[in-house]
Design brief:
By secondary structure, the protein is an alpha/beta fold. The protein is built from 15 helices and 13 strands.
């Protein structure tokens, strides 16, 4: 035990607006459970998910310890957000964290402001991507950029999930380069069943080429582009199947768009065990306009499945173009061409899938993710030795 722990175990509070299925929720759960218990105490604070979203805790980790704040959620509401800010301050004063670590845009705003109000010396924010484009109107996006520029000055450290995400944020004037640390996501996947069993479990016929999409059906994910690409694939490979594992606000719209494709599109909803979905797949696909570093692509890679993704965010750091899959332009035709190249050449798909598995195991394991955060937290603690307003004899930084 080194001198950086003279104050006892380091208390880390993680704050998210909501624990919907996705990368931020997965990361928060890993850190809550994975930080060494002899050196860290953790508290996870979050709001509630929308009706159109799947709750990560209920679906994937029902025993995860979490503090729910009813006032904290996805939607921006002046009165509700003020109540959420007060509630977060109350949590901070009760837990007395040395580090407040926020995730996602809204929690990043409220959590960092609350940490400043409560004089928490170390304030960390993770950009799991950014919402500077593809989410809001140009005016709202400019306003959000200004807010993020100001909040970056109040942050002790900024984490980006990929190099391209970091570079895009720096290009937008958000933070200084010396504040950034790139920590890619880590993921794990359960034991893979036999492909025939997985397809039978999902109700899929054997022998047909299978494309899988795992994620939210929402605007930025471009399910319309996905359906257009699949229609093109079916024109040239009529036996192909698209399996959509997920839901969202565009669920019904996507169903209607897929009616013309008949039973070539299968909606299986959110799955508590995605290993069966990827075990059934020949290729995974992502058609987004904006991403951070998609955990679904990491999971596909860990399952030995090649992927096709649009060239957005740090998706191209997960999928190595031409080696573990294809990274393509933001067009349905480009997606369809890349899918067909893999589906029509079984040997190519197997080679890419094995390369994807090796790359993912080396770069995106959970132990590496935890170790990277421990290293960052310990460095920040050393840099702020003696600056603890919570500890006897401490002084404010």
């Amino acid at each position: 035990m080194t001198e950086i722990y003279d104050v006892g175990p380091v208390r880390v509070m993680s704050i998210l607006a909501r624990m919907n299925v996705g990368g931020p929720a997965w990361l928060a759960s890993v850190l809550t459970r994975g930080l060494p218990k002899d050196r860290f105490q953790t508290r996870l604070v979050c709001g509630c998910v929308d009706n159109s979203e799947a709750d990560f805790i209920e679906l994937r980790d029902p025993n995860l310890p979490v503090r729910r704040l009813e006032s904290l959620g996805r939607s921006v509401r002046i009165g509700g957000d003020l109540l959420a800010l007060i509630a977060i301050c109350r949590e901070i004063r009760e837990f007395r964290p040395h580090i407040v670590h926020t995730h996602t845009a809204k929690a990043g705003v409220l959590g960092r402001i609350a940490a400043v109000i409560c004089r928490v010396p170390i304030r960390v924010h993770t950009f799991h991507g950014h919402v500077l484009s593809g989410y809001f109107s140009p005016l709202a996006s400019r306003a959000l950029r200004i807010v993020e520029v100001l909040l970056a000055r109040l942050s002790t450290a900024l984490i980006a999930v990929g190099e391209r995400v970091r570079d895009e944020l720096l290009d937008a004037g958000i933070g200084r380069g010396d504040k950034y640390v790139v920590i890619p996501p880590g993921a794990a996947i359960g034991p893979l069943p036999d492909k025939l069993y997985a397809r039978e479990w999902l109700g899929l016929p054997p022998g047909r080429p299978v494309v899988v999409f795992v994620g939210r059906l929402t605007g930025v994910k471009r399910p319309d582009r996905l359906m257009e690409a699949m229609a093109d694939v079916l024109d040239r490979l009529p036996g192909a199947l698209l399996v959509i594992a997920g839901e969202g606000d565009l669920m019904e719209t996507t169903r209607r768009n897929g009616e013309s494709l008949g039973d070539s599109v299968r909606f299986v909803g959110w799955q508590s065990d995605v290993s069966k979905v990827f075990a059934a797949a020949d290729v995974a696909v992502l058609t987004s306009d904006n991403e951070g570093m998609p955990v679904s692509l990491i999971e596909a890679s860990l399952a030995g499945v090649p992927s096709v993704t649009t060239a957005v965010g740090s998706a191209g750091e997960v999928v190595i173009d031409g080696v573990t899959g294809h990274v393509v332009a933001l067009s349905a035709r480009a997606v369809a061409d890349a899918l067909l190249e893999i589906l029509l050449d079984r040997q190519l798909g197997l080679v890419m899938g094995e390369a994807a598995r090796v790359h993912a195991e080396q770069a995106y394991g959970v132990p590496r993710l935890v170790d990277d955060h421990v290293e960052l937290y310990e460095r920040l603690i050393r840099d702020h030795a003696g600056c603890w307003p919570w500890e006897a004899g401490g002084r404010l930084g």
